[in-house]
Design brief:
three-stranded antiparallel sheet, about 280 residues, 10 helices, 9 strands, binds pantoate
């Protein structure tokens, strides 16, 4: 595995592989890797010949009061994990390499899909994500890119961006990886104590409860959302949203919608946790 910090070096390396007819798979990350990220590398290995993983904590997707400064930077440990999983190239650029002209005055905005759920609670977040992902796509020029379905709204937005802007890249979603207790793996779980992690697993249980209500015939989705938020609040979380949505449009679901996804975000103290369940 090689570690590369500059775009020029990355492109020299990848051009050689491309000339050899190799298929390039890409896993963009912000580092602080856990088994969820490593599962994306495993998927990438089955879909491509050369796996590139980026480690870049992107400043433009953090709000002014969010954890950009304290976000864990764990380059050495990340590289060890990636090497053990068989990644070929780690791309770990400095902020100035990705944003040489600061502040960035060009951004990629995907309308509608980014307006609600996390987009409503974190204004500008998805513009930061789509802008950096576009930049990384242009730097890596992969044949396919793998994203975790834990960030369901993010992957929906990226799929639409790739389609609307004709990026010649296959976007592959990989299933959520969970702790034994059901908590969705996330870099931010590192902010929680063991007891808090156990308690946080109730979020997934609430999603499962709502799913079974729907499976048993409940079609009053707005009432179900209210009840779910009450349960979450009673457990000591501060609910951000609990939305039963149409999987494709991410609009609040109507009773006639078939493919649904319930999206959830809740605060446990200062830590904001997200999860989802597909129906
Ligand atoms: O999902 C993430 O970790 C980030 O949003 C991404 C896609 C790496 C962009 O910074």
């Amino acid at each position: 595995m090689i570690i590369i910090n500059t775009i020029e070096e990355l492109q020299i390396e990848l051009n050689a592989h491309r000339q050899d007819g190799k298929r390039i798979g890409f896993v963009p990350t912000m580092g602080n890797l856990h088994d969820g990220h490593l599962s994306l590398v495993e998927v990438a290995k089955t879909k491509s010949d050369i796996v590139v993983v980026s480690l870049f904590v992107n400043p433009t997707q953090f709000g002014p009061n969010e954890d950009f400064d304290s976000y864990p930077r764990t380059l050495e440990a990340d590289c060890e994990k990636l090497e053990s999983k068989g990644a070929d190239i780690v791309f770990a650029p400095a902020t100035e390499e990705v944003y040489p002209k600061w502040p960035n005055i060009t951004s990629v905005h995907v309308a509608q899909l980014g307006n609600n759920h996390c987009g409503a609670s974190r204004p500008g977040h998805f513009d930061g994500v789509t802008t950096v992902v576009s930049k990384l796509f242009n730097m890596v020029r992969p044949d396919c890119a793998i994203f975790g379905e834990k960030d369901f709204q993010q992957i929906a937005i990226i799929r639409r961006m790739v389609s609307d802007l004709n990026f010649p890249i296959e976007i592959i979603g990989a299933p959520i990886i969970r702790e034994k207790n059901g908590l969705a793996m996330s870099s931010r779980n590192g902010y929680l104590s063991t007891e808090e992690k156990d308690h946080a697993s109730h979020l997934q249980k609430t999603l499962q409860w709502a799913k079974s209500e729907i499976k048993n015939g409940c079609t009053d989705f707005r009432q179900l959302e209210i009840e779910a938020n009450q349960k979450i609040e009673a457990l000591g979380f501060v609910p951000d949203y609990f939305n039963i949505t149409n999987q494709e449009t991410l609009a609040l679901a109507e009773s006639c919608d078939k493919d649904l996804v319930i999206l959830l975000a809740s605060f446990m103290g200062k830590v904001r946790l997200i999860d989802n369940i597909q129906i």
